[in-house]
# Entry
Amino acid sequence: MTHFDKPAVFARAAAILRDNDRGAYTIPTKGLYPFQWNWDSCLTALGLRHFDEARAWLEIETLMAHQWPDGMVPHIVFHVPDDGYFPGPDVWRTGRPVPTSGITQPPVLGFVLHRLFEEASDRALAEEKARALLPKADAWHRWFYTMRDPAGEGLVAIIHPWESGRDNAVDWDGALTAVPSDGVVPYVRRDIGHVNAGQRPHKAEYDRYIKLVQIFRDLAWDNARLHDASPFRVVDPGFNAILIRSDEDLADLAATLGEPAIEAAARKRLALSRAALERLWSESHSQYVAFDRVAGRPVDSASVGGLLPVLAGVEASRMQALARRIRAWTEVARFGVPSHDPSDPRFEPKRYWRGPIWLIVNYLLADGLRRAGFEEDAILVDANSLALISEGGFAEYYDPLSGEGLGGGAFTWTAAMVAELITIARDDS
Ligand code: GLC
# Structure
């Protein structure tokens, strides 16, 4: 690794967080993503706390102030108009007082709340904030099991690739073929005005992303209808693993705060889902894979989504297999952990979620590894994340073979993860 000047890197992370701070929320990066994003904000709060704990809580409070009456937490809150991003509020037309998108994102909230609370220095503030946010997080989780698991299987489906947070992963290719691309109202993409098109999704995918928005809009964003009506319904192991972990963390937080009803409900969901996750295990890939609920079959795609169950408290033999996969991928892709199996011909080292490394995913993987006792593996993932900062700056994502920084620059959640990692490394030493 090139020389790593910790204080300078920490200061740079702080400057990025400050620069992308809009007072009560942060934007992911200027230009490309000028609004508040759901899982970006939650993970960013973990970084903000190193500078200002009250500001970290505020980040989450702002997001949760825009929770829908049915419990959903939208993936984007359009606080102020900005035509640098497509699709904007005029396309979504969700009818919310402050415009929001109409789909959701990976529920890292429970995980983040638990961490913010456990590690807070200002205990009184943490108690007050966590107590107020806990029922809202619980309502979001109940929403998932009502609206996205109508058959009570214990696994929830995403109805749009953007909900996964891994927008153009190989995992969705097959399922997207069931989404018609006719009747898409002509549009101009803004993303490729900011970033090289070779690092972004293809037009064929984008048409279908927009078509899905149109289908849901025609159903008036009525979540009771969207799941069954959507031509895209996929069970993502990564998404479900995050939900399971967040349920566990919510249950623990509820126990600490003396909220037995919330705790009991979360533990019940957790037990059902952890068992159900096993249905996504693939012997041939030796990892978890997605399930296409429309086609009724597993998806033949070994992506990092299928490694995220390291977070979910899966049994020891599964953990060993997943840790082996992470090691094997990192041997091929020096800067690991890539977002897709680098030995698969569909791996593309520069295209968004089809190969590049994302520091937030590394962070979640390292957390799961560490918690399950795979400390050395976790240290390696963390060290590689910091090495990427030296190689590629505070990028949105990185080429796993060369370490080159790709996509948007001066990226908020990347900076937040660095603030976390430097602090973790400091504690270790
Ligand atoms: C992209 C990413 C998504 C993220 C958003 C804002 O859509 O795929 O995970 O939340 O950008 O950074």
